[in-house]
């Protein structure tokens, strides 16, 4: 018999982190934002566990480079050629930017070709097999996904492999036989239509708790992917025990994002010389990787058995990515001082999470300048 589970699943907007007395931390500068990750399949990486999404608009070289330079993690979307990635690695070497935390993405299609591509990167551009691979599929529940993951692990035994997406704890153990990081989140993304089109998805807070518990029991890691609205949500994810957080929309409005910038003109109420003053606002294009737009651009159109599960959006332009990255590091460090956590690793140990009815005071939001 079909059942509705009685307990409500929670999302970021349903909770807050309760400030409390902890260890003596007088300044945000005293917080250690770097973490050492010891992965299940043997590799070690160090950094701040924030990723850009492996989407065409934000999984591009300019965004990736800035995140890597800030000591974060980065992905590249799967549509770059070996030569393009090779040139990027060369650029990073010349600018002294480490790409130890860079993940190259592959999908579930043409696995032999993808393996060939990864090996070519290794032989031509000195991208060692110990580097990092993201195997990305909107739905990692299909049996093929596990087969591809197993094959990639067999071919690249020393790589850090991130695989997903999933939205339940039950599948984590199986995937962690081959993967190091499980990418969790279905339907939470800001450019996502999966919940509307299929009714499927799991709210992020409950999902993180469920998956982290299972993954950590076998030394696996999880990445909370999608649904980050504010920096506070990244803090919440870390407090809930997520090892990594992945965001798309948060980076998509910046100069560095690949979406085209457009301007729109709006008539204001202000009148000068008898005419309404015109205000110009800038926007950037952001689209889901399952949107009709992405299908037309990368897959030669929608096939007749599919529905579009992503949106194409014009979102407000937000300026330099550095500013967003500083908001992220500043916000996380500040959260740590509110709960007495000396490092990101300590956040989940120090945090008390409370369920709330009203998360933010939004009364003057529309008057922001
Ligand atoms: P955001 O940070 O914008 O809320 O979410 C980014 C995440 O949305 C991505 O990392 C990916 O998991 C997910 N995503 C990207 N494109 C699509 C899409 O077209 N459909 C769905 N369902 N999810 C998407």
Question: Can you tell me about this structure?
Answer:
The termini are far apart. The mean pLDDT is 95. The chain has helices at residues 61-69, 82-94, 111-125, 143-155, 172-176, 194-198, 204-216, 231-239, 249-252, 292-298, 321-339, 344-350; strands at residues 15-17, 35-38, 44-47, 50-52, 74-76, 102-106, 132-136, 160-166, 181-184, 221-225, 244-247, 261-272, 275-287, 312-316, 353-355. The chain has a single domain (26-257, 316-356), classed as Aldolase class I (TIM Barrel). It is α/β, with parallel strands linked by helices and 369 residues long. The strands form four sheets. The protein has an eight-stranded parallel sheet. The chain has a three-stranded antiparallel sheet with strand order 12-13-14. A two-stranded antiparallel sheet has the order 1-15. Helix 2 packs parallel to helix 3 and helix 8 (231-239) packs across helix 11. It contains twelve helices and 15 strands. The longest helix is centred in the last third of the chain and has 19 residues, at 321-339. Strand 2 and strand 3 form a beta hairpin. Bound molecules: guanosine-5'-monophosphate. Guanosine-5'-monophosphate (5GP) binds next to strand 11 and helix 9.
């Amino acid at each position: 018999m079909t059942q509705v589970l009685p307990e409500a699943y929670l999302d970021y907007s349903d909770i807050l982190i309760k400030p409390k007395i902890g260890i003596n931390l007088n300044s945000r500068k005293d917080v250690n934002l770097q973490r050492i990750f010891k992965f299940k399949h043997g590799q070690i990486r160090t950094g701040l566990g924030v990723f850009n999404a492996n989407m065409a608009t934000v999984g591009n070289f300019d965004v990736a480079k800035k995140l890597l330079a800030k000591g974060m993690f980065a992905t590249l979307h799967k549509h770059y050629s070996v030569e393009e990635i090779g040139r990027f690695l060369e650029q990073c070497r010349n600018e002294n930017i480490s790409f130890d935390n860079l993940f190259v993405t592959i999908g579930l299609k043409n696995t032999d070709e993808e393996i060939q591509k990864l090996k070519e990167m290794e032989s031509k551009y000195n991208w060692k097999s110990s580097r990092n691979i993201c195997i990305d599929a909107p739905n990692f529940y299909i049996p093929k996904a596990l087969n591809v993951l197993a094959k990639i692990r067999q071919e690249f035994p020393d790589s850090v492999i991130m695989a997903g997406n999933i939205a339940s704890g039950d599948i984590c153990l199986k995937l962690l036989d081959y993967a190091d990081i499980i990418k969790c989140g279905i339907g939470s993304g800001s450019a996502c239509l999966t919940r509307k089109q299929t009714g499927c998805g799991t709210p992020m807070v409950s999902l993180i708790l469920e998956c982290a518990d299972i993954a950590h029991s076998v030394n696996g890691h999880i990445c909370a992917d999608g649904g980050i609205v504010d920096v506070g949500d990244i803090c919440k994810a870390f407090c809930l025990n997520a090892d990594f957080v992945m965001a798309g929309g948060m980076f998509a409005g910046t100069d560095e994002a690949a979406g085209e910038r457009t301007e729109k003109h709006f008539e204001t109420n202000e009148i000068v010389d008898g005419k309404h003053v015109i205000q110009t606002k800038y926007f950037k294009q952001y689209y889901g990787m399952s949107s009709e737009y992405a299908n037309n651009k990368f897959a030669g159109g929608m096939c007749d058995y599919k529905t579009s599960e992503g949106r194409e959006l014009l979102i407000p332009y937000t300026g330099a990515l550095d500013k967003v990255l500083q908001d992220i590091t500043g916000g996380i460090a500040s959260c740590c001082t509110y709960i007495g956590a000396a490092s990101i690793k300590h956040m989940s140990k120090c945090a008390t999470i409370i369920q709330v009815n009203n998360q933010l005071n939004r009364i003057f939001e529309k008057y922001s300048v």
